[in-house]
Each structure stands twice: as structure tokens, then as C-alpha cells.
Design goal:
This protein folds into two domains: 23-109 and 205-244, 3-Layer(aba) Sandwich (D-Maltodextrin-Binding Protein, domain 2), CATH 3.40.190.10; 111-196, Periplasmic binding protein-like II (D-Maltodextrin-Binding Protein, domain 2). The strands form four sheets. It has a five-stranded mixed sheet with strand order 9-8-10-7-11, with helices on both faces. The chain has helices spanning 2-20, 47-59, 70-78, 93-97, 139-151, 161-169, 180-190, 217-232, 235-244; strands at residues 23-28, 37-38, 44-45, 62-67, 84-85, 101-109, 111-116, 131-135, 154-158, 175-179, 194-196, 205-211. The relative contact order is 0.18. The protein is α/β, with parallel strands linked by helices and 246 residues long. A hairpin with a 5-residue loop joins strand 2 (37-38) and strand 3.
Length: 246
């Protein structure tokens, strides 16, 4: 009897451990403030980071998050090394068709153009014959590409948003395109000599949490359920207010 009881207890412990063994591996970008970035203490922080934490707490799952960079995050998910990514990824039909599986949107962002503080460029028309900087593989690149032929400018790609901005500050490019809240935060937080150009924003798109295999649909479902709950209980608005001052 004691042996049977011990075996039952062991089995229950294994089942209990399995029930809580939902340690997902999540990838994110390295520098996409205010959505993900490293603060002065070396801690990964940002809107994406806190939304994921709040959703995980609400849904009762555990996870690890690693800032790999944009391209590396996608590659890691596609290779099955990570379960999903949260990195300010805009939800688009093109991405869905190529295998991205998105959650519900958690933030709507536009893309727009910025120039050097002392620049007299006031619109796309002034870009003829010039170069603009964008981050590779992003909606901002798609937006710039869609305008390049009409306005006669060349699109130059970089690996990160800070590299994009530095290209304009250093005079390598005449302007840059990026997500509007990212550029606004970077200019404000770092005091860099850039300015947003009025009237250059597009219609925007929602950011979504993403996975790259139908086997990960359960994680997307959990994210959606948790997102709905933190929106309902006020936690979502609290996170946005912390980073955007809304």
C-alpha cells in the first residue's frame, strides 16, 4: 500500500509539474524604444516587455525573453528556436501570407519621416535625388519603398533604429522613415537634432505578437485572452501611460 501511495504521489507531482511547465521562449528586438530597450541598469524594459509580462501573469504561464534583434528574432522563430516574438511587428497581409501568425493588435502605430533639425525639407517632394534611411524588414521600409519611385529618392537600409537616425544626424542620408512613436520617443529622450515632418505619416497598422507555426496557436490564444483582460482591468492603459504619457 505504501508503495502504491508513493507511486500515486509521484505521478501527481509529475502531472502538476507538467501543468506548470509552460516556459515559453520569446524573442524581441534590441533597440526599439519605448517598446523594448535596455535601461541604465541593463534591464530590458518597454511597452512590449510589460505587456508580455502582464499577459503571462494573467494567463498563468512562464517565459523567458531574449533581445536578439529584428532579423535574428524572426529567424529564431522560423527555425523553432523561439516560440514567438514581440517586437513592434506590424500586422500585414504580406506577412500573414509568408507564414506569420499574429495575435490581436495591441497598439496602432503610423510610420512617418524625420529630418535633421536644421533641414529645410518639408515634404516628400524635396527628396528627389537624395537618400533616406530605414530599418531593414520593417513597415517603414515598405512605406519608403512605396514612395521612392514617385519622389525620386534612394532607400538605404540599416539594422537598427539608432543606426537609422545616426545616418541622418551624420549627413549620410537626408531623411529617415520609422514608426512615429519610436522616433518621437528617441528625439525626446536623447535630445538628438532630428524633427518629425508634419503631414508625412501613413494610415498605420496594429502591432501584434507573432508565432511562425500553427503548433504555437495556443500561445497566440493565451496572448489574446490575456490582452483582452489587461485592457479590461486597466493594466494596459497603465503600461501605455508609463511609457507614452497617455
Amino acid at each position: 500500500m505504501k508503495r502504491i501511495t508513493a507511486m500515486l504521489l509521484a505521478a501527481l507531482m509529475l502531472l502538476s509539474a507538467a501543468a506548470f511547465a509552460e516556459d515559453y521562449a520569446i524573442a524581441t528586438d534590441t533597440a526599439f524604444r519605448p517598446f523594448e530597450y535596455t535601461d541604465e541598469t541593463g534591464t530590458l524594459v518597454g511597452i512590449d516587455v510589460e505587456i508580455l509580462a502582464a499577459v503571462a501573469e494573467d494567463q498563468g504561464f512562464t517565459y523567458t525573453i531574449e533581445p536578439l534583434g529584428w532579423d535574428a528574432s524572426i529567424a529564431a522563430c522560423q527555425a523553432g528556436q523561439k516560440d514567438g516574438m514581440i517586437a513592434g511587428a506590424s500586422i500585414t497581409d504580406a506577412r500573414k501570407e509568408s507564414g506569420w501568425i499574429f495575435s490581436d493588435g495591441y497598439y496602432n502605430a503610423t510610420q512617418s519621416m524625420a529630418v535633421a533639425q536644421n533641414s529645410d525639407i518639408a515634404g516628400f517632394e524635396a527628396l528627389n535625388g537624395l537618400s533616406v534611411a530605414v530599418k531593414i524588414g520593417t513597415m517603414s521600409k515598405d512605406y519608403a519603398d512605396s514612395l521612392s519611385e514617385t519622389y525620386g529618392f534612394t532607400v538605404v537600409t540599416f539594422e537598427s533604429s539608432p543606426d537609422v537616425y545616426q545616418a541622418v544626424i551624420g549627413g549620410q542620408c537626408a531623411a529617415c522613415f520609422d514608426d512615429t512613436p519610436i522616433m518621437a520617443d528617441y528625439i525626446k529622450s536623447n535630445g538628438v537634432p532630428l524633427k518629425l515632418v508634419d503631414g508625412t505619416a501613413n494610415e498605420g497598422a496594429d502591432y501584434g505578437f507573432a508565432v511562425f507555426s500553427a503548433d504555437k496557436q495556443e500561445l497566440v490564444d493565451k496572448f489574446n485572452a490575456g490582452l483582452a483582460n489587461i485592457k479590461a482591468n486597466g493594466k494596459y492603459d497603465e503600461i501605455l501611460a508609463k511609457y507614452l504619457g497617455n
